[in-house]
Amino acid sequence: MIGIIDYGMGNLHSVQNACTHLGLESLISENPEQLRKCDKLILPGVGAFGDLMKNLKKTGLDQFVLDEVGKNKKPMLGICLGMQALFESSEENGHQLGLGFLKGEVIPMKGYDIRIPEIGWNDLVIRSSHPLKDKLSANPFAYYDHSYFVSGFDPDDLIAYSQYGPYLVPGIVGRDNVVGTQFHPEKSGKDGLKILEWFAKEFNNDHSSSN
Amino acid sequence: MLTKRIIPCLDVRDGKVVKGINFVGIKEVGDPVELAAEYDRQGADELIFLDITATSDDRNTMVDMVERTAKQVFIPFTVGGGIRSIEDIRKMLLAGADKVSLNSSALKNPDLIRQGAEMFGSQCIVLAVDAKKREDGTGWDAYLAGGRINTHKDVIEWVKEAEKLGAGEILLTSMDADGTLQGFDLELTQAVRNAVNVPVIASGGCGKLEDFYDVLKEDTADAALAASLFHYGTLSVGEVKDYLKEKGIHAR
Description:
Largest interface: A-B, 39 and 33 residues
Number of helices of chain B: 10
CATH class of chain B: Alpha Beta
GO molecular function (chain B): imidazoleglycerol-phosphate synthase activity; lyase activity
Organism (chain B): Ileibacterium valens
Structural class of chain A: alpha/beta
Radius of gyration of chain A: 16 Å
Strand content of chain A: 25-35%
Number of helices of chain A: 7
Active site (chain B): 11, 130
Oligomer: heterodimer
Largest sheet of chain A: 8 strands, mixed
Function (chain B): IGPS catalyzes the conversion of PRFAR and glutamine to IGP, AICAR and glutamate. The HisF subunit catalyzes the cyclization activity that produces IGP and AICAR from PRFAR using the ammonia provided by the HisH subunit.
Helix content of chain A: 25-40%
CATH superfamily of chain A: Class I glutamine amidotransferase (GATase) domain
Strand order of the largest sheet of chain A: 2-1-3-4-14-13-12-9
Number of domains of chain B: 1
Shape of chain A: globular
Protein name (chain B): Imidazole glycerol phosphate synthase subunit HisF
Helix content of chain B: 25-40%
CATH architecture of chain B: Alpha-Beta Barrel
Strand order of the largest sheet of chain B: 1-3-4-5-6-9-10-11
Number of strands of chain B: 11
Distance between the termini of chain B: 10 Å
Number of strands of chain A: 14
CATH architecture of chain A: 3-Layer(aba) Sandwich
Strand content of chain B: 15-25%
Largest sheet of chain B: 8 strands, parallel, barrel
Radius of gyration of chain B: 17 Å
CATH topology of chain A: Rossmann fold
CATH class of chain A: Alpha Beta
Number of domains of chain A: 1
């Protein structure tokens, strides 16, 4: 069972629709007890970083995620804003602290030779040693929709990236039981669905039954 | 590198797609979900559903259609037409739309853009503009109510204002080019794109493959929208994509 964390914002149903389409059981919940029973978690996200952290705190879900994912090592996938929340901090609307599972900070894209937000399909370059490399099509694309991106990350955490103007945008990042996608796998066609399937069926399975 | 997008637009009335449809096996008045899936197969980068009746009676039909589409189509889609309030935006996003497009409601109440962007993020607020050149040739006016009423608001000023308020994208329809099949309005598209830093979707006037190239090459538009061309099967999305790639435009 995949638990989709409901903190009052985000594209929850799109993520659940994709899971259902893949034959994966999922539930949308704001209840830590229910989410604790799930094998894996997804933190979706659309909107502003500050609102996400504020809502997580308000519902007590921030502590749940820190315990369950940070201490108990339950596998979790963060999507878009949910991926940005995995990092230490963000500069969106002032300095805000994130969950801190991964090293790096979220900063705005700037510059007049590129459009902001980045909206659309960008080439996804996957690290050749990563298991996803053989699962996706030869030249995969991912659907992005964002104005901020992660900088100062640990190069070891980078699984895939896309180039946008002057920026190397981390597309997929991960370490141990935590993984995140800056793009929307649930909106990235067949390759996107394969990434979700990989997370559900293969990612970090050693830890998924630890409790 | 980011690709240029091809976006089919589907006009919806009473939960059905109107306009003739020429896909094999799909009836003339099509089921939106079936059509969306077909466009997805052809390689469409996104879809736009436009509620052309846009009366409040139809809201639930539209919500239902959006829900059904979101269950089967895994590329982004936008819903427009008759979206007047934060509550309308919320309903469409909850039903599974990725973005909403605002037109008349934003002209009447520009603050709706700001509120929508603050609550749901700029990435899901698309400003749709119906633009028509002024008779004296000094620029373009923005029209509302499906092009029936001239607001006498200058299009360039309006898109700049909308960008400041938080619109994440501009869907620009040239009323002068629309329906002519003579190509997109390059002058208008370029003027709007130079005025803002958000992506611009060009709409209205395309009739042949070359028109897509002309509006997407270099720095003219970020995406191109077409309706009847695809509906009538004059061109498939796949044909447009193949052509663009052949001409060296980065496409998916």
